[in-house]
Design brief:
By secondary structure, the protein is of the alpha+beta class. The chain contains six helices and ten strands. α3 crosses α6 and α5 crosses α6. It binds zinc ion (ZN).
């Protein structure tokens, strides 16, 4: 599940593969950029903002552009050595190819692919709340934004990237389990919003640098989460069957005993 940590890792992969390199070719397989050619452009850096990827480039005439992409549920970027076969996903899912002398970056099933002047990046990511893995992470601001909608369920509020950027469904479910809070609890009734966002940040940060997302500290298959993906399995704390239900537009997992409803 691409959440803030996965996107952060992806940005690092792209940075290591391409930063400082002059592109020797590009191939955009999305209609809006079909005629774009970034040959001769230099990759300055790759960064993430919440779940958004930002590849910043310098043009031959001094132009500054940012290539934006979003992984949503199913997107991925891979870096290959020149000449290496692109095996990560089927070829028909390829949306962007960036070639440099040392590496080829291939973007699969990317969403919201856009190329904008770097000075206008905020048109794409300016609405986002504080980035949990950003250098400017601001828990007080995240709490302020959450608290501005007191009647919203905390389960939906944590997923709203305008409140804080980087939490997806996995971390939402896991944070609320660890805090003993039902996902249906209105924001105003959550006992410690600051503790909740701080824990979310710690869980995401702990998974930087690895592709296995674990909130339990266990990395083996089947042991990486407390509730997420564990419907009908026993709660690791109390043994009650974990439940799964729709909440807003997403499903949520929770333990009805460890996470009693509050109001
Ligand atoms: Zn339980």
């Amino acid at each position: 599940m691409p959440e803030g940590d996965t996107v952060w890792n992806t940005a690092r992969v792209l940075h290591r593969a391409l930063a400082g390199a002059r592109l020797t070719g590009s191939d955009f397989r999305v209609p809006q950029l079909a005629t774009t050619d970034l040959t001769g452009w230099t990759v300055r850096e790759s960064a993430s903002r919440g779940k958004h990827l930002l590849l910043r480039l310098d043009g031959p005439a001094g132009e500054e552009r940012t290539l934006h992409s979003h992984l949503r549920m199913d997107g991925a970027w891979r870096a290959y050595a020149p000449g290496e076969r692109w095996t990560a996903r089927p070829a028909h899912l390829i949306r962007v190819v960036l070639r440099s002398p040392g590496a080829v970056a291939v973007g699969y099933h990317l969403h919201e692919v856009a190329l904008v002047p770097t000075a206008e990046e905020s048109s794409l990511v300016g609405h986002l709340g504080p980035d949990l893995l950003g250098p400017d992470w601001d828990p007080d601001e995240a709490v302020r934004r959450l608290a501005a909608h007191p009647e919203q369920s905390i389960g939906e509020a944590l997923l709203d990237q305008r409140n804080l950027a980087g939490v997806g469904n996995l971390y939402k479910c896991e944070v609320l389990f660890l805090r003993g809070v039902s996902p249906w609890t209105p924001v105003r009734a959550v006992p410690d919003l600051a503790g909740t966002v701080t824990l979310a940040q710690r869980l995401l940060a702990a998974n930087r640098g690895r592709w296995t997302q674990s909130t339990t500290g266990v990395l083996r298959r089947g042991g990486t989460s407390y509730v997420y993906g564990r419907r009908a399995q026993p709660c690791r704390r109390c043994g009650t069957a974990i439940r799964k239900e729709e909440l807003g537009e997403r499903v949520t997992y929770w333990c009805p005993v460890c996470q009693p409803e509050r109001d």
